[in-house]
């Protein structure tokens, strides 16, 4: 593998936020007497705000009051992630420390808006690892479009083909591969389907496993 930089998704990869967000959505549905449509919810993972709205509105139908649902949802989610340190996923610190020791610049490419992403990373003690943060509000097309990964690479001044990308979601994997990056996937709530596996990227159970794989590649 020939890489000069590493770009990370955040939610579900660095931080164990996806379960918090899912539970908040479930509680919002209960408060509004809506069904919890698991398949619809899982389809939003990796999407930016526009993508999330489209997936949910398509899944729930035209009678849905999306703004009401979003308010109920965020009123449950934000107090947690804005005030509490969300647990860091297995292997995150070891991988980030190893990349730093190799003088590899590191960035974040997240669909979450900038202020909330910074808050989450600071509370978790991860913010200072990253040289840049690109977020979903800065791009016109969210994942699976490659725009956010290309933006992150440009800010590092490294060509996309020389970047490692770390993702948990299928939307994120498609985005990074379309950008021409070398991709590691560590699935979280959604396991990769056959179409995703066929893309030929590296899939590992944890970032610890990804680090072990990188170390083996580096000594070849």
Structure keywords:
2 domains; globular; single chain; 220 residues; six-stranded parallel β-sheet; alpha/beta; 10 helices; Rossmann fold
* Cα-to-Cα separation, first versus last residue: 10 Å
User: Helix and strand succession?
Assistant: EHHHHHEHEHEHEHEH
Q: Could you give me the name of the CATH homologous superfamily of the largest domain?
A: HAD superfamily/HAD-like
* Largest beta-sheet characterization: 6 strands, parallel
Side by side, the strands of the main sheet go: 3-2-1-4-5-6
Query: What's the CATH class label of the largest domain?
Result: Alpha Beta
Counting DSSP E segments of at least 2 residues, the number of strands comes to: 6
Q: State the domain count.
A: 2
Residue fraction in strands: 5-15%
Query: Average pLDDT value?
Result: 95
DSSP helix count?
10
Shape: globular
Q: Which residue ranges are poorly predicted, with pLDDT under 50 across at least 5 consecutive positions?
A: none
Structural class designation: alpha/beta
Note down, in words, how this protein is organized.
The chain has 10 helices and 6 strands. The protein has 220 residues and is an alpha/beta fold. It has 2 domains: 5-16 and 87-218, Rossmann fold (3-Layer(aba) Sandwich); 18-81. The chain has a 6-stranded parallel β-sheet, sandwiched between helices. Helix 8 (170-178) links the parallel strand 4 and strand 5. Helix 1 crosses helix 4 (66-81). The chain is globular. The model has no long low-confidence stretch (mean pLDDT 95).
């Amino acid at each position: 593998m020939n890489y000069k930089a590493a770009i990370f998704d955040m939610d579900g990869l660095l931080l164990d936020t996806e379960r918090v967000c899912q539970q908040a959505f479930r509680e919002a549905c209960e408060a509004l007497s809506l069904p919890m449509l698991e398949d619809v919810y899982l389809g939003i993972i990796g999407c930016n705000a526009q993508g999330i709205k489209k997936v949910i509105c398509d899944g729930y139908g035209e009678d849905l009051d999306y703004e009401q649902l979003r308010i109920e949802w965020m009123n449950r989610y934000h107090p947690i992630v804005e005030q509490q340190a969300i647990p860091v996923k297995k292997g995150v610190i070891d991988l980030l420390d190893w990349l730093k020791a190799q003088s590899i610049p590191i960035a974040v490419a997240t669909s979450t808006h900038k202020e909330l992403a910074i808050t989450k990373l600071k509370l978790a003690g991860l913010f200072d690892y990253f040289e840049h943060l690109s977020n979903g509000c800065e791009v016109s097309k969210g994942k699976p479009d490659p725009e956010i990964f290309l933006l992150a690479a440009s800010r590092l001044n490294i060509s996309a083909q020389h970047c490692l990308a770390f993702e948990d979601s299928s939307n994120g994997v498609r985005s990074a591969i379309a950008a021409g990056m070398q991709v590691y996937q560590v699935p979280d709530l959604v396991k990769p389907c056959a179409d995703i596996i066929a893309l030929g990227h590296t899939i590992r159970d944890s970032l610890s496993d990804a680090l072990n794989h990188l170390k083996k590649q580096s000594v070849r």
